Amino acid sequence: MSEQSAPSPTPAAEPASESAAALPRDIVSALKRDSAGLVAAIIQQHDTNEVLMLGWMDDEALRRTMTTGRVTFYSRSRQEYWRKGDTSGHVQFVKSVALDCDGDALLVRVDQVGAACHTGTRTCFDGRDLEVVTGNRD
User: Fold this and answer.
1) Rounded to whole angstroms, how far apart are CA atoms 74 and 83?
2) Disulfide-capable partner of 124 in 2, 43, 53, 107 (CB 3.0 to 4.6 Å)?
3) What is this structure's pTM?
4) Phi, psi for 64 (deg, rounded to 5)
5) From the CB of residue 38, how many other CB atoms can be counted at a distance below 10 Å?
């Protein structure tokens, strides 16, 4: 296995690089990252509201997502950035990004080309329903 210098997730207090500092200060201070410096990013189809997948972003991945029109994630297993669709062709074009009220999750609305899931299904939730007891208002 060859050695690579993989970028590491951004600590909450300081950006990993000068480019990460390009995120507006109010966003940097509002984000509540996990112990690895990451925030959950829920990916949703902009016109149907389908929840497509969940990925992880650090400050740099979020900056790239907000400034390039394409979704970039941080891979926890490979410890590197990856842009959705670069190898599969299943591109996610950014339509909007929102931060939740606690600052610990992002909602990225996209125009998804092809399958969102690495298994080849439209969403990462297709065919994975769990058996539950449902509730009612009344």
Assistant:
1) 9
2) 53
3) 0.80
4) -60, -40
5) 20
* Structure token pair of residue 26: 């109010």
Per-residue CA distances from 138 to 133, 134, 135 (Å)? 15, 12, 9
Question: Can you tell me the distance from the alpha carbon of 24 to that of 54, in angstroms, rounded to the nearest whole number?
Answer: 24
In whole angstroms, what is the distance from residue 93 CA to residue 45 CA?
A: 10
Which residues are 55's β-sheet partners? 41
17-63 pLDDT tens trace: 444 458 889 898 899 998 898 999 999 999 999 999 999 999 999 99
**What are 72-96's pLDDT values in tens digits?**
999 998 889 999 989 888 999 999 9
Distance CA 73, CA 40 (A): 10
Of 96, 86, 85, 59, nearest to 74 by C-alpha is: 59
Q: What count of other Cβ atoms lies within 10 Å of the Cβ of residue 137? A: 3
- Angle, alpha carbons 47-103-116 (nearest 5°): 35
